[in-house]
Description:
The protein is mainly alpha-helical. The chain has five helices and three strands.
Amino acid sequence: MLAFRGEQYQLQNKTDREKLEVSMKLHDELHNNYELISKMACIALDRGLKLMIENPYTQPHYLTNYWCIKPKVIDKDRRQNGDYMNKPTQYFFIGFEPKQNIIFEALDYVPKRVCDHIQGKDRARIRSEIHPQYANRFIRQYLIDEK
Length: 147
């Protein structure tokens, strides 16, 4: 949101015209990404495919505010299910409903990752990694029958 408004730190020495150009470019990228994710969802619905989309859950968030498909699962603290980070995440289920299985087993301790000192693509990669324990529990809880 700061970048769209021209208030991002990197834009502080830019002219209003340069800020507008950055904002227009961001809006174009946002529109393109919205169109792509919507087309992917339409293809899944048309072909009867099951599609699950994972996306950060922050407010305000474009998909949460403007997409006609609502998230069916919002995990506000992933550490409670054995992940490295507690970042809020929303999950969209298209073409099927999530299962509501209860997992009755203890979690192994997973140390919290801190990547405040890391910059750029390495930081993004580290923040996006999912611990295998979290992935396993998520699949068993929401995607497959545990009967």
